Amino acid sequence: MSRLFDLSNEVAVVLGATGALGGAMAEGLAAAGAAVAVLGRNVARGEARVAAIRKAGGRAEFFGADAIDRASLADAHSRIRDQLGPPTVLVNAAGGNDARVTVTADRSFESIAVTDWQANFDLNLVGGALLPCQEFGPAMVARGKGSVINIASVSAHLPLSRVVSYSAAKAAVMSLTRFLAREWAIHGVRVNSITPGFFPAEQNRGLLFNEDGSPSARTQQIWNHTPMRRFGTSDELVGAAVFLAASKASSFVTGSDIVVDGGFLSQTI
After folding, report:
1. If we measure between CA atoms, which residue out of 207, 226, 227, 210 comes closest to residue 218?
2. Domains, the chain, ordered by start
3. Dihedral over Cα of 235, 248, 128, 223: its sign
């Protein structure tokens, strides 16, 4: 059974690995045997992630890169090939919401600036999937092997109140995932997505907790809509990532979405 999930011959690129969710997946892929390229803009966090992976016995290197800069990605790609080998797994975990495009009592939908909307859309779609897929995907296609894992959101399935630009961008990520799955399947490259439910992170902590650390009204709404009545923890995404990365375990899986949400999308009234 362990052979199904063995990643010892894989080189995994994880964009956004300096964050909580991307970092957990990077550590999980390394624990399964992959050599992991930790990509991000924050050098200190990137190096800390690499140190954690190495301390656990894994292999990893940090590569500074900006997901919305194609030249930056191309440079990182070249360095990854030289230091770790040709990438065979790509995890696109860069992204996040922005307070400027969040509808509040003081900020209506119609007052959101187009430039702010575009910046958030670029972060979550262009940098969160499009440019990394354009940079790393063709090389996988040429070699006839690869697994791309995009990170969607429950808001892509069920648009959430307030986070309008983020919801729209993540819906676009899911659409792009299915398009590429169809285009690249014949070339041996699988493209899937993971839909996380609610996982506390820096980008949403202000929405989920009050200044004193107590759950916000928003958190109570989320828990009431989540059958498991709690948030997810970052390590609970690792299994889905390893499954989709492992060519033996998920060899006939492409164009699919794995939902890890504590039952959020199954809840109605």
Report:
1. 207
2. 2-201+233-266 (3.40.50.720)
3. negative
Least confident of 47-51, 76-80, 199-203, 259-263: 199-203
The tokens for 166 are 């983020």
Cα angle 170, 195, 232; round to 5 = 125
Contact (CB, 8 A) for 33 and 50 = no
Q: How does strand 89-92 pair with strand 11-15?
A: parallel
Contact residues for 4 (Cβ-Cβ < 8 A; gap 6+): 246, 248, 249
As to burial, measured by CB atoms within 10 angstroms (0-12 exposed, 13-18 middle, 19+ buried), residue 119 is: middle
Q: For the segment 223-232, what is each residue's pLDDT rounded down to a tens digit?
A: 999 999 999 9
Q: What is the per-residue pLDDT across 143-168, written as a single tens digit (0 to 9) for each?
A: 999 999 999 999 999 877 788 899 99
Q: Say whether pLDDT at 200 is over 90.
A: no
Q: Which residues are catalytic?
A: 166
Please name the residue ranges forming H helices in the chain.
20-31, 43-55, 70-83, 114-121, 131-143, 154-157, 164-184, 205-208, 217-225, 238-245
CA separation for the pair 161, 49 (Å, rounded): 33
Q: What is the pLDDT of residue 218?
A: 82
What's the mean pLDDT when you consider all of the chain? 94
